[in-house]
Predict the 3D structure of the following.
Amino acid sequence: MTDRIPDAVIANPTSRYGDAKASTRHFITQRLTGAINIVFVGFLAFIVLRLAGQDRPDMVATIGNAWVGLPLAALLLVVTIHMRNGMRDTLEDYFHGAAYQRYMMLNTAFCILIAVAGVAAILKLVFWG
């Protein structure tokens, strides 16, 4: 843990460490994706309630509709961005240096995998049924 910033540097308000622009971008992205998620979760709840008790062909037809599938794909993208940023906050609290870099790389790879697989599945239903 040689990469750890000493507490005296953190406690000094005149010291500078980290990238201020990246932190601001992270803050804005987290708040913006959170707000978008609130709107989209209402849409998702509507779709889930509408599909409750339906059989598979009805579900495929509903999600395959472009007016439903494309916003659902956008929701999945926004949720994975929000998830990556939220996990970044947790990783920053518990890991430093090379360990943080490795875990952040795994976090990013996992979020990309989830986003690509989910969006591909939804777009397959929308464009190819």
Summary: The chain has five helices and no strands. The radius of gyration is 20 Å.
